[in-house]
Amino acid sequence: VGLTFQAFEIERHDNCAYDYLEIRDGTNENSPLIGHFCGYDKPEDIRSTSNTLWMKFVSDGTVNKAGFAANFFKEEDECAKPDNGGCEQRCVNTLGSYQCACDPGYELGPDKKSCEAACGGLLTKLNGTITTPGWPKEYPPNKNCVWQVVAPTQYRISMKFEFFELEGNEVCKYDYVEIRSGLSSDSKLHGKFCGTEVPEVITSQYNNMRIEFRSDNTVSKKGFKAHFFSDKDECSKDNGGCQHECINTVGSYVCQCRNGFVLHENKHDCKEAECEQKIHSPNGIITSPN
């Protein structure tokens, strides 16, 4: 039996000693107590564990209130049926109805009964792998997945594709993946990719990256598998200690000098280059140091 309250106003008391509604799970006053209710807050929806619900309303001889109004109805456990309510993975019984749910790593499909691999989310690990939903099988239609990768300050994120196969056309109108520096949909765009050509390695400008995958309702392909890894950008702080230019590399960095200078033995400072040179070109430009 299911019970839902539409209105509830019974004389208030901390222990419901004056006016109250008593509800028990069973056929009589000795059945398990569900609750004594009074005051002005509607009780939560109630469901019995059997086919009977026992209720008693008591009022004393003093204060009167509006009382209560409740709907009772036959509550069927649709999830107890042999077909699991038609749910592919999990069936969750609710008061007067039911809903399907999926195991971790999956999400409900458009029919609200089947489950498909989930996609997208916030990723804060320094490295990991991203794949299209259903990998290595074909990705489902009508998917919109957004991954937001966030690394610590001073880090940059690189994305390398191991496999890439999406429905393609010249402007990537149908299925595509977009990669941006930043977390919003209008952040700097590195590229919009589709087809079968594997994109080059992409490195973010900042410590975050947005990857968005979309598929339409027609052709599906195998999708993509990509690895992301974060690397500290030593050049982002104090120019890496370099006097002129700092060039960030994977796992390290190097200092570089402007024209007319060479790198000092300490690998950070720059000194004037020697100006004695042999020239064999019939024409050109000669300048003094600096």
UniProtKB/TrEMBL annotation:
Origin superkingdom: Eukaryota
One of the GO BP terms on file: proteolysis
Keyword Repeat on entry: yes
GO cellular component: extracellular space; transport vesicle
SUPFAM superfamilies for the chain: EGF/Laminin, Spermadhesin, CUB domain
Compartments where located: Cytoplasmic vesicle, Secretory vesicle
Molecular functions (GO terms): calcium ion binding; serine-type endopeptidase activity
Swiss-Prot/TrEMBL keywords: Cytoplasmic vesicle, Disulfide bond, EGF-like domain, Hydrolase, Protease, Repeat
Principal location class: cytoplasm
PROSITE patterns: ASX_HYDROXYL (PS00010), CUB (PS01180), EGF_2 (PS01186), EGF_3 (PS50026), EGF_CA (PS01187)
Domain (CUB): residue spans on this chain: 1-75, 119-231
The EGF-like domain, residue ranges: 75-116, 231-271
Entry-linked Pfam families: CUB (PF00431), FXa_inhibition (PF14670)
Keyword Protease: yes
Name of this protein: Tolloid-like 1
